[in-house]
Each structure stands twice: as structure tokens, then as C-alpha cells.
């Protein structure tokens, strides 16, 4: 049998889950900083720079010169 829950019970559950996820996010951020020496935003930027570098390198190997990805979208290319 399915038990129906009131809206207030559902809201309470969602609030608890949100608090738990926020706590896990804080732990993850601290773990990244401790393990890699960088915060999550910096790691994301580094990964994006690497992706752009690899994309450009692959294009050069193929003989293409037309930019793709972030460059095509008018976004600035991050510096390494």
C-alpha cells in the first residue's frame, strides 16, 4: 500500500535532504582542496583549459585551422 504524505512532510524531507547535500558538498570541497591543493572552481577551469588545448591539438593534427568549442561561441580562451 502506498502511504500518502502531506505537503508539509514532503517539504520537511526536502529541507533535510538539501541540508545533507549541502554538508556533503562542503566536505567534497574540503577534500578536493586537501587532496589536490586546488578548490573546485580552479579544478573546473584547469579541466576546461585542458579540453581546449586537446581540441586545438587534434585540429592541428588533422590540418584544420577553424576554431571550435568555446572560441566559436565567442567565449574567451582561458590562459594556462
Quick description:
This protein is mainly alpha-helical. It has helices at 7-36, 40-62.
What secondary-structure arrangement, pairings included, does this model have?
Layout: H1 7-36, H2 40-62
State Rg: 21 Å
Helix-and-strand structural type:
mainly alpha
**What is the helix tally?**
2
- Measured distance between first and last alpha carbons: 58 Å
Beta content: under 5%
Low-confidence stretches: none
Q: Name the shape in a single word.
A: elongated
Structural summary, described in words:
- This protein has 2 domains: 7-37; 39-73.
- It is 66% helix and 0% strand.
- The chain contains 2 helices and no strands.
- The protein has helices spanning 7-36, 40-62.
- It is elongated, with a radius of gyration of 21 Å.
- The chain starts with 6 loop residues before the first helix and ends in an 18-residue tail after the last helix.
- The mean pLDDT is 86.
What are the key terms here?
elongated; single chain; mainly alpha; 80 residues; 0% strand
Amino acid at each position: 500500500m502506498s502511504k500518502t504524505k502531506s505537503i508539509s512532510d514532503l517539504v520537511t524531507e526536502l529541507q533535510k535532504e538539501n541540508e545533507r547535500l549541502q554538508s556533503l558538498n562542503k566536505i567534497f570541497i574540503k577534500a578536493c582542496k586537501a587532496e589536490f591543493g586546488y578548490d573546485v572552481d580552479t579544478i573546473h577551469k584547469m579541466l576546461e583549459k585542458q579540453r581546449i588545448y586537446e581540441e586545438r591539438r587534434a585540429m592541428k593534427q588533422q590540418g584544420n585551422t577553424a576554431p571550435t568549442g568555446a572560441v566559436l561561441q565567442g567565449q574567451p580562451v582561458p590562459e594556462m
